[in-house]
Amino acid sequence: MARQEAAEIQVFDSGEHFAEQIELLALMGRDFATSLDIEKTLFKTLEHITHYMDAASGALFLLDESGEHLRCEVCVGETEITGLVLKSDQGIVGRSVQNNSGEVIHDVATDPDFNNAVDAETGFTTKSILCAPISVQEQKIGAIELINRKSGDGLFVQSDLTMLEAMASSAGLAILNARMAESLVEQERVRRELELAAEIQRSLLPSARDTHFPVHGINQPAREISGDFYDFFPLPDGRICFNLGDVSGKGMNAALLMAKTASLFRCLGKTIHDPGPLMSKVNEEIFETVTRGMFVTMVAGVYNPATGVVRLANAGHEPPIFHKADGSFSFIPADVPPLGITPHLSDGEPCPEVEFQLDGGALYVFTDGVTEGYIAEGVTLEVEGVTDLLTANAGLPAPERLKKIIERISGADLPLRDDLTILSVDDRSCAEARRKTPRNEVPVSSDSVQNRETLLKLQFPGKPDRLRLVRSSVSETAKLCGCNTEDIEAIVIAVDEACQNIIRHAYGATQEGDIILEIRRRGDEIVIFLRDFADPVDVSKIKPRDLDEIRPGGLGTHFIQELMDEAKFLAPPADGGNLMRMIKKIK
Amino acid sequence: MKHQIREDRGHLIVSFEGDVDMQNSPEARNVLLKNLEKKMPILVDLSQVSYIDSSGVASLVESLQTAKRNNSEFALVSVSGEARRVLQLARLDKIFTIHETLEDAFADAG
Known about the structure:
heterodimer, A: Beta-Lactamase, Phosphatase 2c, domain 1, 15 helices, B: alpha/beta
C-alpha cells in the first residue's frame, strides 16, 4: 500500500510526466481528427498507450451494436487476440465495462473473473491486468486492457489506472466523434443521391405550358422521390397524347420503375398514337422485366383539340373524373388490370378504349394520394372533396384549379401520406374556338395572330383546269413579297403539287369540293394554308416516294418536302375536311 | 399546252410548249405513248416548256420505261431551265439522256 501511494505521488508530482501525458492525449485527438480509418487510428492510439504505460501487451475492446458482445478490435504486444469476442459481461474486461469503472488486478491469480483460456492457448503468463472502460457520459463504448508491466516486478499499481482512465476517456470521445463523422458522411452521400434521383425524376415531367394549353399537371412527391408520374406532348397531327401513372410501393424501387414506365410511354407514344395499343405495348415491356410484386396503374389518352374528343385507356387506375360543361360529374372506370401483372392486358384483344366528347368540359386524372390525402387529422379528401373543389373553382384557369386541390392537402400541415399527382384536360377554350370558327374559314392558328399579313385568299373548285390560275396568283403574290425567282418557283410548285394531292387523293374520284388557299406573311416567312372539305386523310399514309425506285407518280409530296421549310397537316378543322400548312423562309 | 411532231434524220421529234401540268399531262402522256408505238428513236424537245409538274415528269418516266422495253431510243433535248429544275428535284436528271441541242442529239446518234 505504501508503495502504491508513493508511485501515485511520483506521477502527479512529475511535471515532465504530466506534460508527456498531455502531449499523448493531443496526439490521439489529432490522429482521430485527421484519419477516416477508425481501425488504423485505434491501433495507433493503443500503441501509444501501451508504450507509454510500459505494458507487455494491450488490447482494445469495443461493444457491438447490440451491446451484447465485446470484440477485440486491435491488439499490440506479446499476445494476439484481435477478433476475440466475449460476452459483454465476461471476464475482467466485461466487468469493467458493465460497472463503468477501471480495475487494477495486481495479481490475477487471486481474481475469480480471470479467464486463463487465452494464456493456455498462447503460452503467455498473465500476472497483472490494468483495465479502463471507454465511455462517454453514460454511453458504454468498450475498454482498454493492458497486461503485465514490462519493467520491475511486472505488476501494475493504482496510479497507473488513473492515467489509463484519463487516456481511455479521451479515446472514447475520439471514437464517438469518428463514428458520428462517418455516419454524417454516409447520410450526406445518401442525401445527395436522393437529390440527384429527384432531379432526374423532375426532368421526366413535362414543363408547364401557358394557361391556354389544354393539358396541365402537378406532381408533389411525399418524400424526395416519387412513384407517380404524368406526361403530355402534342402529336404531329395536332392531337395531344397524355398519361398519368402510379407505381405500387414507395422508395427507390418505385422511383426507378416510375422512370422506366414514363420513358417507355414517352418513346412509344410518339409512334403509337392510340391509347389502347400503346397501353398493351408498355404492359408487355414492363411485364417482361418488372421485379416480382410491383405494378403500375395507368391512364393513357389522346385528346383532339379540333373536335374535343378524348380517347382513353385505363389500366387499374382510379377512375378519372369528367366534369361536364353543365357542371355534372361522371367517372371513367378501369377496364383492364394494372400494368406488369399479366403478359397480355385483355386476352390477346387490344386494350379497350373509351371515346367521348368533352364538349367544353374537363377531364381530371389523379392518383389515390389525392383522394386519400389528409385534409385534417383522420379526415381524407375523397372523390367528393375533389369534385366539390372542382365545382367551387370552375371559374379559375386550369393550373390554378389543380393548385387549389393540391393545396387543400399540402396546406393541412399534416405529413403527406403519398405522392400527389393530378392532370387536367380542359376543352373549354378549344370548344369556344370551335364555335367561333365558321365553316369555310381557314382557322387562324394562335401563333400567327400577331405580326402577320394576309396576302392572298382564294377559293376555287378542286379541278385540274383551275391550277394554272392558282399558279399565276401564287407567283404574283410571291413576287409581291420580294421573293427571288428560285423561291417564287419553289412556292408555285409546292402549292400546285399540294392542290393536286387534294384533287387526286382527298377528293379523289368519288368526291368533289372547293379548295381554299390562303397565303400570309409572317416576318421572313411565307405561310401557306390549304383547306379542303374532303374526308379526313390518313396522314400516316402520306409518304414521299422512294427516289431510288424509278417509276411514274408519287413525286408531289417529295417536291413539297424538298422545297418548303415545313409542310404538315394541322389538326383537322372541327367541321370536317383537312388543313395543311406550308412554310417557306424567304431570303 | 401545245405539241408538235415532226421527223428529222430518222428521229421523231416531239415538242411541247406551255404548261405540262395536271390538266395537260394526260394529253402529253398519250402523245408520247402513241408515238412510241412507231418504234422510231424519239427526241422530246422541252425548250418551250414554261412549267412541268410531277404528273408531267411521270409521263416522261413512263415513256422512257416503254422505250427501254422496246429497245428504242428516247432522249430529251433543249430542256428549259424550269423543266430542268423539276427533273433535278425528282433526281431524274441523271436517268434521262439529255442533249443540249438537236445537233448534239444527231451527232450522238452517229
